[in-house]
Design goal:
Two copies of one chain form a homodimer. By secondary structure, chain A is an all-alpha fold. Chain A has two domains: 53 residues, Homeodomain-like (Arc Repressor Mutant, subunit A); 125 residues, Tetracycline Repressor, domain 2. The longest helix of chain A has 28 residues. At the A-B interface, helix 6, helix 7, helix 8 and helix 9 of A face helix 6, helix 7, helix 8 and helix 9 of B. Chains A, B: InterPro entries: Homeodomain-like_sf (IPR009057), HTH-type_TetR-like_transc_reg (IPR050109), HTH_TetR (IPR001647), Tet_transcr_reg_TetR-rel_C_sf (IPR036271), TetR_C (IPR011075). Chains A, B: Keywords: DNA-binding, Transcription, Transcription regulation. Chains A, B: It comes from Nonomuraea antimicrobica. Chains A, B: This is TetR/AcrR family transcriptional regulator.
Chain lengths: 197, 197
């Protein structure tokens, strides 16, 4: 009985070591220069152990983000009672993070690439982002709806998709996400683009 | 003098043959089963000729989309005089296309992946999409602005990014783009999500 359990413990330890090594290597070298060889060496495992769980560099980085080893603080949406300024602050924290960390763009692009190429990663990504949206952004949106700050019939998950999607697209096409961009995006999303009738 | 010119003609002919072969192979096998070997064979060139111009499968597919060999009709935005119904019709044409062609999801994901992994493809993608936005969507938006259908200070390119980004994100996370989704998205983008004050 104890063999499988010990095997499982060893697996979980190795898995965590790999994710921690990936986080450290990302911080030191950035995404483009990240190497699976160095990740395996730093984690003290064979390269085939890394490939057993993740088929590619982008897949292990995606897991690293999704498991909260990097970008973790982006999951929290503040609650000041004013939805618009909370969403703005959340996007601005993202701008700050990207300004501080030159590897951030590569991280976000790795996520997109991994999701594009693997159904399993995409499902995982969606579950995590949906979970994030459920627990933070959607909860915040539902609260705003109760306070009468959100129009009727606007699904919270769609607002999350509009925000994630627009920001992700800016990353993909290498356009800066500036405070001015955040202001314009918040204005368009909250007030709409149509002229008042 | 004639040698370089003949060389250039040969190059352009081979390039076009590769893109046409990619389009045909995509239609026959879909993106996931697309093989660079088969593309090269169908184009009548060596595999190294394909790799000389495109480093990966996703790169040649991205070029194929960008050069208008597939998805070309998505560039046209109708002009009925009513911006909201034109944008809705444009998104609905996309829904129809995806419903008709089971390879469409793979194509869009290939674009995203190629852009995520290569600065050159990303720049090309942005130039083409910006060009599309400039020539169709942005022109249509500018016209709507003149007719007083668009709120002041809404940059057309940002509207294009919100639309492209949200739709791309739905593809990445493998969520269906349904007529209901299109209606909700148009409503949110045109009317905004904030409750009227």
């Amino acid at each position: 009985m104890s063999e499988p359990r010990r095997g499982r413990v060893r697996s979980e330890t190795a898995r965590r070591a790999i994710l921690e090594a990936t986080r450290d290597q990302l911080a030191e070298h950035g995404y483009d220069k990240l190497s699976m060889d160095r990740v395996a060496a730093a984690a003290g495992v064979g390269k085939q152990t890394v490939y057993r769980w993740w088929p590619s560099k982008s897949a292990v980085v995606a897991e690293c983000v999704l498991a909260g080893y990097v970008l973790a603080d982006m999951r929290v949406v503040a609650d000041t009672g004013d939805l618009r300024s909370d969403v703005r602050a959340w996007l601005m924290a993202f701008v700050d993070f990207v300004d501080r960390d030159p590897a951030a763009g590569g991280l976000v692009r790795a996520l997109a690439s991994a999701a594009a190429e693997s159904d399993a990663v995409a499902t995982h990504l969606y579950d995590r982002f949906t979970a994030t949206a459920e627990s933070h952004l959607a909860a915040r949106l539902a609260d705003a709806e109760r306070r009468g700050q959100l129009r009727d019939g606007i699904p919270a998950v769609m607002v999350a998709e509009m925000l994630f999607g627009t920001v992700l697209y800016r990353f993909l096409v290498r356009q800066d996400i500036t405070p001015e961009f955040v202001d314009r995006l918040c204005d368009a999303i909250f007030n709409g683009i149509a002229a008042p009738r």
